[in-house]
Amino acid sequence: MRNGHYLLSKVCFGTAWTVLACMALLFSGSLVSCRDEYRVYREGEVVLQFSQDTVRFDTLFTTQASVTQRVMVRNPYQEAVMIDRIYLQGGGASRFRVNVSGDTSLIQHGVVIGGKDSLFVFVNTAIDYRNQDNPFELVDYLCFEVGSNPAQRIVLTAWGQDANYWKADRRVRVPFSDPGMFNPDSDSLTLSYFLYDETRHSFADPKPYVIYGYLAVEAGKTLIVPAGTRVYFAPQSGIWIQAGAKLRIEGTLSAPVVFTSLRQDGNYRDMAGQWGRVWLSGESGPHEVEHAILRNGQTGFWIDSCIMGEGGLKIRDTRIENMSSYGIFCQQNRVEGVNLCLSQAQSLLYFHKGGSYEFVHCTFSNSYSGGFGGSRCLHLDDYEEDFSGNRKEYPLEKLFFANSTFTGTSSQQFLVDLAKEPGEYSQIGFDHCLLMLDPVPEDNTWFDSCQWNQEPLFADEQAYDFRIDTVASPLVGRGNPVHVTGAAVLDLAGNRRNIPPSIGAYEFLEKGAAVSKPAVFRFLHRR
Predict the structure, then answer these.
(1) 8 A C-beta contact, residue 495 and residue 507
(2) What element of type H or E holds 337?
(3) Which of 74, 141, 220, 521 could form a disulfide with 153 if both were Cys (CB 3.0 to 4.6 A apart)?
(4) Is 304:331 a contact under the CB 8 Å cutoff?
(5) Which helix (H) or strand (E) holds 310?
(6) Neighbour-count burial of 497, counting CB atoms closer than 10 A to its CB (0-12 exposed, 13-18 middle, 19+ buried)
(7) Residue 184 pLDDT more than 60?
(8) What is the rounded distance in angstroms from the CA atom of residue 254 to the CA atom of residue 429?
């Protein structure tokens, strides 16, 4: 029985090998057949198709690698096409690098694309030129040669920019708590930083500045950022004004100060949360900001409590946009704003534990879709509550908005959470504003000549263009003229306001009038 079982197993095992061998022969035959068909090459005229004829890389800093872009090369014919050579016209000196199906050789031979098939080519670059103040352009060509046909080319372009590089050389753990975000480590924050030195960290160079870590300004010093300065922050980077120190940003209409993310290529160009914040520590200041643009960070200005000193932030003619947390966060301090345009953040304004706030001719528009809990223009509270539910109240000295807009995708652009009943706060007021809040409050104690839940009709919110597009906008001519004084005589774009003025940071001007385009557009689309 045992021998019979052995013989049966042997026969079955041998039969299985025979079947496998036959299948292998059949499969190899089919492969040969497929290969024969695959090698029926197109003869005569061959014109490859490309998914794009130009590959562009936005501004890159020296030593910084780009994102990788993809180009699809398609064979439109039934027969296979043999590409004799794929190469960069610049050869080994080219600043571009190419990957074709895993092959990164400078010159690639005999690349086959089957009939009606395609292949992917991946391209990236790194800028390595130095000591050029102005942006410079790199150009090369990716060439494809098939037989005696004229070579086809894809244009490769990249904009490069040299910069001043400042890097952190210290680390510290500091107290930090964010009341608006869930954070399991909410009581402290680890910062990489370097100390500001007036002789080493001057903003006099026309080249931009790239900062890794936080630029920390110690007590007794004032950080002055002159007009035209461009600062690009790496992740977990920013500016840290410590207690007893001051910040002055001195931009102009034609030369604003720009704080933005290091990466500006591909999808990074409009990605929020890529750097930290301008952190104005408790008992620092007073601070002054004029004509600034802040983009793509976590929080534009984070302002901590100031009880003992003068403190406070005066800010005008400034845009803060595309922040993953807040445009301006402030607790127990003071902010005065004129001609501000804040857009896209979890909360554009977050005022925690009371304080004093006054804003004139500002545009707050929020359609931010990141984070959690929706997005809003204003979050206000005057207390703090611990984990046990114990509540400590803080004084709210003033909250006043004039000729300003609060609009966005959500119908709840306010979250006002106060310790007392609304009627007990005579220090809160909204004068000639456009507000989006549904339902409209029954108690109008805070609101004087305000409009509710109307579309502002901005020029192009997706492109951060919050100028008024049409005379049909509810903003046109609906502001209170009494507030058109001082810095508010001109709008954010430098145009003189009409009387009565339009609501918001921009005055409406009829088509054909001499209109100043906001500096942010000149910056974003500069070449």
Answers:
(1) yes
(2) strand 334-343
(3) 141
(4) yes
(5) none
(6) buried
(7) no
(8) 34
Strand (E) or helix (H) holding 30: helix 2-38
Which has the closest alpha carbon to 182: 296, 390, 281, 325?
A: 325
Residue type, 521: F
Copy the structure tokens of residue 466. Answer: 């919050």
Report yes or no: 257 and 292 within 8 Å, Cβ to Cβ: yes
Residue 17: DSSP 8-state: H
Q: How far apart are CA 314 and CA 321, in angstroms?
A: 18
**How many other CB atoms are found less than 10 A from the CB of residue 513?**
8
Nearest to 370 by CA among 270, 457, 450, 286: 270
SS (H, E, C) 377-388: EEEEECEEECCC
pLDDT tens-place string over residues 404-425:
999 999 888 988 899 888 788 8
Other Cβ atoms within 10 Å of 108 Cβ, number: 18
- pLDDT for 378 beyond 70: yes
CB neighbours of 98 closer than 8 A, spacing ≥ 6? 86, 88, 104, 121, 122, 123, 142
H or E element at residue 402: strand 396-402
Q: Is the model's pLDDT at 185 over the cut of 70?
A: no
DSSP codes joined into one string, 101-151: TTB--SEEEEEEE-TT-EEEEEEEEB----S-SS-EEEEEEEEEE-TTSPP
Which tens digit of pLDDT belongs to each residue from 29-49?
A: 443 334 444 567 888 899 999
DSSP SS3 for 12: helix
Token pair 């109008």 is found at 444
CA angle 135, 214, 379 (to 5 degrees): 100
CB 355 within 8 A of CB 396: yes
- Residue that the structure tokens 């930090």 belong to: 176
Least confident of 10-19, 256-265, 273-282, 445-454: 10-19
- Residue whose C-alpha is closest to residue 322's, from 253, 272, 257: 272
Surface-to-core class of residue 442, CB atoms within 10 Å of its CB (0-12 exposed, 13-18 middle, 19+ buried): exposed
Check: CB of residue 298 under 8 Å from CB of residue 325.
yes
Above 60 in pLDDT, residue 516? no
β-pairing verdict for 428-431 and 447-448: parallel
Q: Which distant-in-sequence residues (6+ apart) come within 8 Å of 303 by Cβ?
A: 280, 313, 328, 329, 330, 331, 333, 335
Whose tokens are 């207690």? That residue is 243
Distance (Å, rounded) from C-alpha 184 to C-alpha 259? 29
Position 89 confidence tier, pLDDT thresholds 50, 70, 90: very high
Place of tokens 């501000």: 340
Give whole-number Cα distances, 496 to 30, 56, 198, 231, 500, in Å.
79, 39, 38, 30, 12
**Binning pLDDT at 50, 70 and 90, where does residue 505 land?**
very high
Q: Are 469 and 508 in contact (CB under 8 A)?
A: no
